[in-house]
Amino acid sequence: MKLTRRQLVVGGAGTALGAALGGAGIYELVDRLAENGGGLPRRRAGGAEQHVVTLDKVVDNGVEVLVPPLHNEVVTATVKVDETRAALREAREELEAALLRLEDEFAPEPRGLHVTVAWGLPYFNRYVPSLAEKHLPLDLRATEARGRATRALIDSIRFPSDPDDLILDENEVAVFFRSHDSEHVRAGSKALFDDLGGLFGATSIRRGFIGGGFEGKQSLPKQMAMAAGVAGAELIPDTAQLFLGFTSSQKNTMGPGRIANHETIPGLTDQHPDGYFRGGTAMHLSHIFEDLEAWFLNFDFSERVTTMIRPETSVPQGTQTIAQTEEDAASADDVKRDAKRHGAFGHSASLQPASRLQDAIVGNDETPYPKGTAIPQRADFDTLDNPFFWSSRPDVDRLSDDPAAGVHFVVFNPTSDDFHRNRLAMDGVLPDGTELEIDPRGRGAGFNAVLNASHRQNYLVPPLRHRAFPLSELL
Amino acid sequence: MLVGLAFAASACGGSEDPPAEAAVKTPAKAECPAKWKADWQKLADRIEAPVYCPSWMPDPLDGDIDGQWNNINSVDPDGSYLLGWTWYEVQSGELHVNFRGQPGNAKIPTCQEVETEAGVTRRRKVPCFADPSGTKTLGEREVKVYTRNRGADVWHVLYSWEEDGTLYAVSQHVAEPLTYAQVVESLDRITAGLVRVDPAA
Asked: What is the pLDDT of residue A213?
């Protein structure tokens, strides 16, 4: 049975925000397919960060794997508050109170509800431009490289492999809800975007899921893709964590602890020791369509492995979790050598010269981080949105009721430029400026040939203490 | 309006109707239609080995080797044959079905893959059929299913089976407007209805 999103949106309210927030639409299937986590409400135990979440671990194929929350939702919005000190103060108090109420109801962890509030440049430019000029973190590395002051939050760019019709979003705020229980996610988004009544004007709702396939059970991506009848669903391995068939959340490929904070890597930004945004991070949010038939019918298993990881990587047929330790991290020279020898570079390998520490460091949090440690903290999840679950401007966003396989890519990096360096490397533009002579959308460029980004934007995630309308208290 | 298309190495597809009708129904006694049989018999005689004539093909294709939709009819000196039928309509899609046989040879054929990056051309020999994904029994034969195929079967789902030391295969292209599942249904029906044609003594 093939389901359309419209058939499943409660009351057919595909364009009504309230119904969209409350209704699960096709994602009601997730509730039926997944075992929701439950768990007792508990207040946040401490920590300065919004983006750091403690995840359970499992071991798969001898590799430690973090278990991301099964259910995910991002709501993007504009702010509907007068540009006055009093109005902003009221809004700040209202939002913070709502966030605290959510923390009273649900523990801020995967079994409860983890909420991350991120702010876009349009917010800072409209409400607190002078304060932003003074307090937004300065990206010291990017400043030196560009020869001009570059903030840790900058506009997103189009990358070489992006399609011409990519939309660069201009949202003022994005709130990321994560939980093993979809009801908690729904309650969270309703509390902030419906119950608060008028603080925000939602621009998009983006929903999805990840995992559920450990212990041999059919995973959510497989079940959801089959139920929705998306092209190529039958080809997804039964237990795949994500549509493309590989496990993405190995412990070694996720930045540990506070490494993605603005201030942790010495010399990267000006936030250590006492920057306003210390404990914060940069977030990139994009939506990417995935052509599953192209991936599974045009790449055999060994090609999918070498495309995803690195040429010459060889694992037994059907392996989904492939070890990528610090020692395995590819250097820029490795990637150049691969490109020359094979006319190709692997997706993971191409990223590593930018996404892994090139030397061991002791972070400003006094934690030793070995050479090869991953920096970004990814939180991407699969989706059937096309491209969103709901949009305030369906024509502009090319909203469709037909389910489409894709990924809502969410990642936390210390700065926007740091993400850009990673993403450019994925297209063969290495951190040292080398541009590999490989078509960034071709078969040789990782799995770019089966990806098609539709939307992108960078955000800044303030620390917990400033998560509600950052800088406005200084007005 | 239907428009025929010269064979391109990876072409195939079809209208909405064929797959809906393509539920696996094995005729009580499948027969090679009389209009097509003479050509299949000629092929069997020429290669001196049995061949498999389809009793059903997805509309509008047929199994007529001399018909309007046949655009691949290749027989090598060793008797290996490749037959292909393609239908294509602008903005609607395409259907493409291939049949193969290689008398006395049960090995998966080898394809040469050629990739050029930055002016450097790399060639490598790879199996033409890859990513085995199980077996299924259709009619009287058990077939192996391959999902990553090369050469004339690029982007096809392919079923192969061995008989008397000969490898046979039938494949269909996964392309708009057909989904993978619809192509599998179609292939199931084609394969279940295959009729063996022996060479004349």
From this structure: 82
